[in-house]
Hints:
Blueprint lengths: L1 H9 L15 E17 L7 E16 L5 E11 L7 H7 L16 E8 L6 E7 L11 E2 L2 H4 L10 E4 L3 E2 L19
Parallel strand pairs: 6-8
Antiparallel strand pairs: 1-2, 1-4, 1-7, 2-3, 4-5
Amino acid sequence: MSILTQKLNENKSASKSKVNYKPSEGWKEARIVALADVGEEPNKFQDGKMQAKFSVMFALDETLEFGDGVVSPKTHVEKFVASLYNKSNLVAKYLSPAGIEIESLDQLIGQTMKLKFKLSDCGKYTNVVNVDESETPLPQVQDVFVPKFYLVDSNGEPTNYDIIAEDGVIAELIPKSNDGEITDDSIYA
């Protein structure tokens, strides 16, 4: 992980160009390409209780182009409680509707499903509102970038997240703006 962070810090730029990762509304074929163990966070419903959480990165069948001709799939990241309990958000709202059964979280890598996206009322976020089985499963993708927030926090400090990624996911580079510069704002919320 230190090599990734070192490369990231060497390439920081003051540019404020943004790359739009938000998928458009509607159904998208999706493939789980990376998982990050984000540690424990407070339970929203029980004061003082902590829950193990992890982040799932989906590659989508919608693409974006960078100024240097690089084409990369758009991605979407969701955070879940690290549980395979049948009433957990991960299982009840994502895996079961997609017809996916797994025994361990690392088996998520490479799983495919359809996700339906809808723009939030404020217009700032694109949320998953429905999940279904893949009709045309997205094959293994190439040149997908790990999001910057997997590598460093808002202060630029290493997160030290444990990351599992499918082949084709480029963990040592973060996305570039149209002018080719790596930017602090080249991430999505």
